[in-house]
Amino acid sequence: MNETYVDILVIGAGPAGLAAAQAARESGIENLLVLERENEPGGILRQCIHNGFGLHRFREELTGPEYAQRDIDAVRAMGIPVECGCTVLSVSPERVVTCVSRTKGFRVFRAGAVILAMGCRERPRGALCTPGTRCAGIYSAGTAQRFVNLEGYMPGRRVVILGSGDIGLIMARRMTLQGAKVLACVEIMPYSSGLNRNIVQCLEDYGIPLLLSHTVTDIRGRDRLEGITVSKVDENRNPVPGTEIDYECDTLLLSCGLIPENELSAGAGVRMSPATSGPMVSESFETSVDGIFACGNVLHVHDLVDHVSAESLKAGHAAAEYIRGNRPGGETIPVCDGEGVRGTVPQSIRKGAAGPVDLMFRPSGVFRNASAVVENDGREILRKKAMIFTPGEMSVVTLKEENIRSLTSGKLTVRIERS
User: Fold this and answer.
1) Which of 131, 142, 186, 392 has the fewest CB atoms within 10 Å around its CB?
2) Alpha carbons 153 and 19: distance in angstroms, whole number
3) Is the separation of the CB atoms in 195 and 204 below 8 Å?
4) Euclidean distance between CA atoms 92 and 108, whole angstroms
5) What total number of domains does the chain contain?
6) End of a domain among 288, 305, 327?
């Protein structure tokens, strides 16, 4: 089988892949290709017709399609080839990429560098172990969003939402605006997993109750969903007898978390993080496999697309430098989660890296009037105070170049300290 060589091959034409491709081209890479399995570029943003995107990157408020179109236009203006309708089947540790499409059939590429930007997927009902019948009317929130915003179908009229992720919160508002009655948003944790602005704008503004420390304990209906039972849960997330609430509804939307789309990453031999379910990367977003980079929601689930783009621009530049043979040297310092912190990215920093380097993480709970502390073998090198740290919002602490140069052998630990 003949192989086609490309300097940089980007997998995914969502916001991460398009931003990475732009950065690579700006860095002087001409032999560049983006592969996308959907029939159009833009990724999930195509169905996110609400506004609130672009405030950080473009300094104006855009809808999802508007945000995506800016990247699509930029990529086209740069002459970067984007092949849609092309499914990548495998990525080898040697950066051999196999793919198939309806128009060009089976092909093999050998890349100087690969950028993984496949995004993430929703956690399905099967992973939730929700009891009850397997009737129609149960959808992931993203599937319902696609039905309503892209295909013009209403999933139902009386709706309960399980989980308080951002997509679920946004769909609570969207279904209400389309004439449905959203009865409640049910969250098993004692706090919401979505952005506070979405709780206010999508639930409180429409009088939709948010039931924290509750979950669905029964689903009723043979052919179509007829009703559900919701129960309060204790500190161990076990249902509390006697707290049941029955809802008559025809639709249940699941918004119970996102999972990085990493089958290709695992197949390439990339070392994965149990905390983020994505690849483990260095400060340049290079994975454990030489020449394979990862960025965006395939790396760790973000709360804002602006952060996805900012991260992916860095990955694209880093991949271009890799092609030129320019890589940071020096000892590798592992980055570890401390108390109150989970899923810090990147998972390692090389002492020869040029700053600044953002350390991104999710708090493990809600912390008020606390500080994020970065320590190097017990020696504090950075402290950032905040009024609140919450799991629904990504937290960032930035290491300056002088911080990196001061690192000694051992490890970096990021933790949250209560005041």
Assistant:
1) 131
2) 32
3) no
4) 11
5) 3
6) 327
Nearest to 71, CA basis, from 58, 52, 87: 58
Pairing of strands 348-350, 332-337: antiparallel
Residues 322 and 335 in one domain: no
Q: Residue 404: exposed, middle, or buried by beta-carbon count in 10 A (0-12, 13-18, 19+)? A: buried
Q: Which domain holds residue 373?
A: 329-419
Give the model confidence (pLDDT) of 106-130 as tens digits: 999 999 999 999 999 999 888 888 8
Between CA 320 and CA 330 the distance in angstroms is 20
pTM, two decimals, is 0.94
Task: Say whether both 229 and 308 belong to one domain.
Answer: no
pLDDT in tens, 303-327: 899 999 999 999 999 999 999 998 8
At residue 330, φ and ψ (nearest 5 deg) are: 90, 170
Instruction: For residue 294, give the H/E element and its range.
Output: strand 292-294
The whole-number pLDDT of residue 171 equals 97
The CATH number of whichever domain residue 271 belongs to comes to 3.50.50.60
User: What is the C-alpha to C-alpha distance for residues 164 and 209, in angstroms, rounded to an integer?
Assistant: 11
Q: What is the CA radius of gyration of the chain?
A: 22
Q: How many CB atoms lie within 10 A of CB 416?
A: 21
* Concatenated DSSP letters of 210-270: EEETEEEEEEE-SSB--EEEEEEB-TTSPBPTT--EEEE-SEEEE---EEE--HHHHHTT-
- My answer on whether 111 and 99 are in the same domain is yes
Supply the pLDDT for residue 290.
96
- Cis amide bond preceding 209, omega within 30: no
- Judge if 251 and 265 occupy the same domain: no
